[in-house]
Amino acid sequence: MAAGRTAAGRSGTGKASAGRPGSPTGWRSVEPAPLVLLQGPEEYVAGRVFELVRGKVKEREDAVEVTRFDAATYQRGELLMAASPSLFGEAKVIEVRSLAAMNEDFLEDALAYAAAPAGDVVVLLHHSGGNRGKKLLERLREAGATLVDCQPLKKDSEKLDFVAQEFRASRRKILPEAARALVAAVGSDLAELAAACSQLATDTSGEIDQDTVDRYYGGRVEATGFKVADAALSGRAETALSTLRHALATGTDPVPIVAALAMKLRQVAKVAGQRKSSGQLAKELGMAPWQVQQAQEQAQYWTQDELVKCLRLVAEADAMVKGASRDPEYAVERAVTGIALAARR
Amino acid sequence: MTVWADLPGQEAAVAQLRRAAAEDAPTHAWLFTGPPGSGRSNAARAFAAALQCQAATPAERGCGTCHGCRTVLAGTHPDVAQVATENVTYAIADVRELIGKAQDKPSGGKWRVIIMEDADRMAERTTNVLLKAIEEPPPHTVWLLCAPSPADVLITIRSRCRPVGLRVPNTEAVAELLVRRDGLTPEQAGFAARISQGHIGIARRLARDEGARLRRDRTVRLPLGLRSVSDAVIAAGDLVELSTSEANAAAEERGAAEARRLREALGLAGDAPVPPQLRSQFKQLEETQKRRAKRGVNDSLDRSLIDLTTFFRDVLTLQLKAGTELVNEYLAAELRSYAARSTPEQTLARIDAISEARVRIAANVSPLLAMEAMMAGLLPPR
């Protein structure tokens, strides 16, 4: 198993400020403990925690012996062997990955070890999710293991938080609008975002502003069909068209963009003119509550007549991108323009 | 009883086919056209029977009693192949195989006859494979193609075939057939023939299947409940879901049976795991089923749209005071009040919206989206 990813690993010095415990950023405050259980699918965070804890142990001790296992290919007895006292008295860190695919041998050994962990050995275990080894997870919790949440960051606010902490850890300052531009450019993959932060921190000096971010990551906007549709449905024609251009330029096919437009328009049409509460609508229409709320917000820009017109426009665009027209890009652009101008802001 | 008996209302076409069957060397390629339900493939099969008929004199061909006639009508004649596709289009490999078969000499009868249903369900590339075989078949081969209209096949195919035009049989002729062949009462047969607009197969299904009647009724009443955009979008979702579940229910049953048969054929016990070397066969079966399911959903939606059109056809009949019989006579009161609330121009625009949706579904537009656009077009103006 490879150690944590190399890029952007530098800031893991352990001096980063702590997030709230249990929050998606809480992993920065993890301290070495006999048992540390990492739970969640975000491999990048798990890698950072491994690195962080290893770093902290190395700071305290002169000699550290690091052992790595893959729980899926584990062989009986390895854990005990690695955890038994060393002849030279080095500190020991044991890193175990892929607990979600652990084999029976590991399960048995780990259960036995969790019952009586060695006090001076740090054992880190990463479980990415699922039901495999549920019993072991319970046992580890009972044994007082430190729990670390490795959930992927979904909201933009969480990603902004992450960026802010990355720069604080490297004692640099980034302006809020620069951070937003950075998240918009490379925010979809956390590892990539962290690599970008580290690159900006090492390559530039002084305060990081929007110009700096633009110089490095300018012209790169992650645009999806849904972003285009959201902008169009809320009547922001300029944003909608420029996002559409980005989406097409980065290789998004017109067909899923039209599908996203259709889906958003459908949601707005469903809630338009309904006087019920969002919770009730969510139940009746089989939509998630946040979808209903978003649709209701957008519905205020729409009249019934315009919705009728745009439903037909999108159906026409779907036919056009599926072969009825020679220029599918024009077809989707026409639909987006039509929708964005029909929404009254 | 001759082979032509089950072709109600097609006197002209029958006379043409009789004359051709009596000839010593009939044309080698025929194109049967007519609206769905007019009996294209039945006409083609009757003609094939007449060609293989063993009657003593040419004028009596198509007797319906000799061995040749009976085996063709039952679909067991060795020299008559009837092909159809259950997918959206014919696969090019299947057509190539068919061309090979067309080269064989007839084994017992006089001709090798190939009946190709739904010849319109062919991509241009596939059709081009057929061209040569249809233009110059071996001396004993006769091709019979079926399509809704001559315009549905490539012009190069059309020009190589002799056309046989079938028309929509009138209600009385269909009802008479349903009574005689399927043993329905005259009232049942009359009602079914009217609401199916002369589509013989649909008429029979509606007369026999209570569920199909209810579904049709729900579809026809749809325009009555439309008030706002959200109604339209929700109604579109319901319609698509109804068609999908209907098509899937039928497909699932059949799919499970097919998988069971394949397991038997491969010698696998009831629930034994499929060994890796056989997995590709199951995968292929699944893909076939998926393609068939897509066609099933499209067909089912198309049928709903035809039913829906009858509603507006009736509204238009009332608005223009044409005085012809209403298809949905049982909804007369609702139809009258709906007709009074709108203009003939609006009704025509709505019929256009429906036919546009049919075209779009055929062009692979997402069915839900096509339905939504159509329902939005059916909304009363504000």
UniProtKB/TrEMBL annotation, chain B:
Entry's Gene Ontology BP terms: DNA-templated DNA replication
Listed Pfam families: DNA_pol3_delta2 (PF13177)
Residue stretches making up the AAA+ ATPase domain: 26-226
InterPro entries found in the cross-reference section: AAA+_ATPase, DNA_pol_HolB, DNA_Rep/Repair_Clamp_Loader, P-loop_NTPase
GO MF assignments: 3'-5' exonuclease activity; DNA-directed DNA polymerase activity
SUPFAM superfamilies in alphabetical order: P-loop containing nucleoside triphosphate hydrolases
Protein's name according to its UniProt entry: DNA polymerase III subunit delta
Organism: Zafaria cholistanensis
Taxonomic lineage: Bacteria, Bacillati, Actinomycetota, Actinomycetes, Micrococcales
